[in-house]
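Regression test case RT-17, inverse folding.

Input:
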């Protein structure tokens, strides 16, 4: 039950990450500051590229967790997906600026859902410590699928 729940929650968190990053990219194309779309500024490009890269990696972990059904892989996928969704929301918030704090913009729904989902069956910080403790105890790193 816990393994499957972690996998499913991880999948939803990755979905949130994908949506949040894609929506922020679209917003940066439309929002104009100093006569230019804010998406031309490197600081925002780097933020969104970082969030996208983490999202892709977490997506691969979720796929592996779904394929093998292993408790370890599901735990690692849930940890990474939670961290990724939080990171994606943080980076998107920087792109949105003040509008991201308003109730009129959709962003707050994804941010609040991320925080709620992450806490189910172990938040990413707690799982990160558990993963580290298990790796130290085992003395080896367990391979996850083709990763």
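Golden output:
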């Amino acid at each position: 039950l816990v393994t499957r729940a972690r996998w499913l929650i991880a999948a939803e968190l990755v979905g949130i990450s994908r949506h949040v990053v894609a929506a922020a990219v679209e917003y940066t194309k439309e929002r104009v500051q100093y006569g230019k779309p804010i998406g031309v500024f490197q600081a925002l490009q780097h933020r969104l590229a970082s969030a996208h890269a983490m999202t892709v990696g977490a997506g691969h972990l979720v796929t592996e967790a779904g394929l093998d059904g292993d408790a370890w892989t599901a735990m690692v996928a849930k940890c990474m997906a939670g961290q990724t969704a939080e990171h994606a929301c943080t980076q998107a918030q920087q792109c949105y600026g003040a509008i991201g704090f308003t109730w009129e913009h959709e962003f707050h729904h994804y941010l609040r859902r991320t925080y709620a989902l992450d806490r189910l069956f172990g938040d990413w910080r707690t799982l990160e410590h558990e993963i580290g403790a298990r790796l130290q105890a085992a003395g080896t790193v367990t391979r996850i699928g083709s990763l």
